[in-house]
Automatic annotation (TrEMBL):
Gene3D superfamilies cross-referenced by the UniProt entry: Nitrogenase molybdenum iron protein domain
Protein species of origin: Psychrosphaera algicola
Name under which the protein is recorded: Cobalamin-binding protein
UniProt superkingdom: Bacteria
Signal peptide residue numbers: 1-26
Boundaries of every Fe/B12 periplasmic-binding domain copy: 37-286
PROSITE patterns hit by this protein: FE_B12_PBP
Stretches that traverse the bilayer: none
Keywords: Signal
SUPFAM superfamilies (UniProt xref): Helical backbone' metal receptor
Length: 286
């Protein structure tokens, strides 16, 4: 794993036009000037940078980057709808961290076309959180801090996996959104969290990662638990009157549960708080 992390970091550094010794990361460190003016284009990136002690290096971020509280004072340069290129150029960043899942492809392409130092935050697994922490540590000169936090994350995750991973499977429906009704399939981050808790996603085999579904689909799937994520938003989820559909086991047995979307949906260390809460609630319905 660490060899893969090192290779990833080296690739990023080469893309910045920095000198990297052929003898590897150890030799390259002396040639790397830590980033001091970072634009972090996703909330989870901001969280991780603050975690390792690099929060004071962030010169701009995006909407919804609200944790820790100090992040609220960072200037905004856009959101999921797009970014303001003029502001970014004026800030003269020496590192821009983008998230393909939350930034527009056209914006990312424009940043790269302008020759700006862009790297990608794209964790696709739980272990990707630790890989990213270590990468951010290398790029900011805070490797020791990042290593300590990554090791702690791995230990805490292992505890959760041991506690819940072998429990009796239970079918769950993750109501990602209500109007239109949406859920997740097996290729998503959320599905990994459900499986970690010993849950079985009833829509795991849907060919679309975030499929739009109907009440009828849920009736056919017969979930035992319905999970409803809650997040701080100007537009809260519309409510569904599930009591009309007592043919669904989760409704018949009143097995609904809420989870904190700001924890569960972000690729940061705080995710473990949300994961532990979700696993405990699922276990309570067993």
């Amino acid at each position: 794993m660490k060899n893969l992390i090192t290779a990833s970091i080296l690739t990023c550094l080469i893309s910045f036009g920095l000198t990297v010794s052929s003898s590897g990361m150890a030799a390259s460190k002396a040639n790397i000037k830590p980033a001091t003016r970072i634009i972090a284009l996703a909330p989870h990136i901001v969280e991780s940078l603050f975690d390792i002690g690099a929060g004071d290096k962030i010169v701009a971020t995006v909407d919804y980057a609200d944790y820790p509280v100090e992040a609220l004072d960072i200037p905004r340069v856009g959101g999921y709808y797009g970014i303001q290129m003029e502001k970014i150029l004026a800030l003269k960043p020496d590192l821009i961290i983008v998230w393909k899942g939350g930034n527009q492809d056209a914006d990312i392409a424009q940043l790269e076309k302008l020759g700006l130092p862009v790297i990608y935050s794209e964790p696709t697994s739980l272990s990707g959180v630790t890989a990213e922490l270590r990468m951010f540590g290398e790029l900011t000169g805070l490797s020791h801090n990042a290593e300590v936090l990554a090791d702690q994350f791995e230990d805490d995750l292992e505890i959760i996996q041991r506690r819940y991973g072998n429990r009796h499977p239970v079918d769950v429906f993750y109501q990602l959104w209500s109007e239109p009704m949406m859920t997740v399939n097996k290729n998503t981050w959320i599905n990994q969290l459900i499986e970690t808790c010993g849950g079985v996603n009833v829509f795991a085999n849907n060919p679309t990662e975030y499929p739009q579904i109907s009440i009828e689909n849920v009736i056919v799937a017969q979930p035992s638990i319905i999970i409803m994520p809650q997040e701080k938003s100007d537009k809260p989820q519309p409510k569904i009157d599930w009591q009309k559909w007592t043919v669904v086991p989760a409704v018949k047995n009143n097995q609904f549960m809420e989870v904190d979307a700001d924890l569960i949906h972000r690729f940061s260390r705080r995710m473990l708080i949300g994961l532990g809460d979700m696993c405990k609630k699922i276990d309570g319905f067993r």
